[in-house]
Amino acid sequence: MENSSVAAVNRPLNCTYCNTAVAQPDNFCITCGYPINGTEEDQRFFVSERNALAIDLEDHHKKVNQAGKSLYWLAGATLVWGFIQYGITASKGIDNGELDKPLLLVNIILAALYLGLGLWSRKKPVAALVSGFSLYLIVQILGTIGDPAYLFKGIIIKILFVGYFIKGIKSAMEAERLKKQYYI
Ligand SMILES: [Zn+2]
C-alpha cells in the first residue's frame, strides 16, 4: 500500500524512454509505447526490444547506403565509359567521318538518371532502388542484345552491383515494415 502510493507520487510526468509529456492515467506513452505503468520487467523488455530494433535499422541503413553508392558508381562509370567510347569513335572518325554523338548523349542521360536515383534513394529508398535496379537490368539486356559478349564484360563487378541492389531493396523494404510496425 505504502509502496504504491510512493510510486504514484514519484510517477514521472515525462516518458522515461522518449521524454514525451504523458498524462497520469496513461498506461503507455502515446509517442513511443513505453509501458509507463508497467512492471520493471515490462519496461526493461521494452528498452531491450527498442535497442535491438535500432541495431536492425542501422544494419538496413548500411545496406541501403551501399546500394545508393552503387548508383553513384554507375553514374560515374557510365559517364567515363561514354566519353572513352566517343573518343574511340572520334579517333576512327577521322577516317570515315562519323562520330557517335547519339551514343554519347544516351550515356550522359543514363549517368544523370543514375545520379538522380542515387540522390532520391536517401528519401525514398524502395522506389529509387527498384527504379535504379530496373534501369540497370534494362541497360544490361539492351547491351547484350546489341552484342552478346557485353553480358560478360566486367561480369564480377556486375554480379557485385546486382548483389548490392538486391540487398539494398530488401533492407529498404524491411526498414519500412519495421518503422510502420513500431510507429517510428
Ligand atoms: Zn515515450
Q: How many strand segments?
A: 0
The secondary-structure class comes to mainly alpha
By DSSP (H or I, 4+ residues per run), the number of helices equals 5
Distance between the termini: 37 Å
Give a short summary of the structure:
This protein is mostly helical and 184 residues long. It has helices spanning 2-10, 40-96, 101-120, 125-146, 155-181. The protein has a domain at 57-181.
Structural summary, described in words:
The chain is mainly alpha-helical. It has a domain at 57-181. The protein is built from 5 helices and no strands. The longest helix has 57 residues, at 40-96. It is elongated, with a radius of gyration of 27 Å. Mean pLDDT is 89; it is low at 1-7. The structure holds zinc ion (ZN). Zinc ion binds at residues 15, 17-18, 20, 29, 31-32, 34.
Using brief descriptors, characterize the structure shown.
mainly alpha; binds zinc ion; 5 helices
SSE arrangement:
Blueprint (H helix, E strand, L loop, with lengths): L1 H9 L29 H57 L4 H20 L4 H22 L8 H27 L3
Bound molecules: zinc ion.
